[in-house]
Amino acid sequence: MSLTAALAYARHGVPVLPVHTPDLRGTCSCDRGVRCDRPGKHPRLRHGLTEASTDPRLIEMWWTRWPAANIGLRTGIVMDVADIDSAEGWHGLTHLLGGSLPAGPRVRTGGGWHLWFRPTGFGNRVHLLPGLDWRGVGGYVVAPPSRHARGGDYRWVRRPGDEPPGVPAALRALIEGPSPVDVVRTPIAHPGRYARAALTAEAERVAGAPVGSRNDTLNRAAFALGRLVGAGLLDPGDVLRELDRAARFAGLGRVEVRRTIRSGLTAGRRMPIDAVPGRTPLLRA
Ligand SMILES: [Zn+2]
């Protein structure tokens, strides 16, 4: 049954690879057995994904050797896959797409769903939303009728027809954008976002500064933001406008505010923040 399905995927142009199989208790067929941290989800072949094939003779050979092998399908060629592993991921994606999910091919997995889409050309992305990953170029998914470590089989909710649906714009923007994980680890790698956040934070600090430290706070803010202006990450007009509004809100006088902002900005622009070496996104944002 597993071989028949594997051959059918291959006939539709999807490269197939044999994957390890969990037993009824969820123990992996690999050498690590109960200690395996990805039971039933990792390739049986030494070179893994790179050996995935549409060659029926090869596929028959593999499934003769491992008749119960789970079926891995290479993504990024015929389809990309939205990999939802929780109810939270389901609700998050549904909300993102305006209340309903596209009526494309859909697989029920152990604890979630796989939604098939036309390939985007992008690679894998993790944590697009809580409970949502993306499998694209260089990735693979486990497909029906494979067995899941949590018990039960991967099964079709809706089988593939002619061609999977295209990726909706909102989802595509998420795939193209910076990963939230990257932002947390290296905020400066996405400097446009970082700079806008800095502008908001500094303006709030100025607006809330207590009497006696207002002018000093304003000066520091103008200097810090001037460094971002100097690096080309913020528009000086935006900084002037935001800080002016915040400082006036704090109760500072107009002439004093302008003078302080200009002097802080000028000094900051002479010391632009450093580009992080080797990080091209800094130049693009
Ligand atoms: Zn294993």
Automatic annotation (TrEMBL):
It comes from the Bacteria. Pfam families: Prim-Pol. SUPFAM superfamilies: Prim-pol domain. Residues 6-171 form the DNA primase/polymerase bifunctional N-terminal domain. InterPro entries: DNA_primase/pol_bifunc_N (IPR015330). This is DNA primase/polymerase bifunctional N-terminal domain-containing protein. It comes from Paractinoplanes durhamensis.
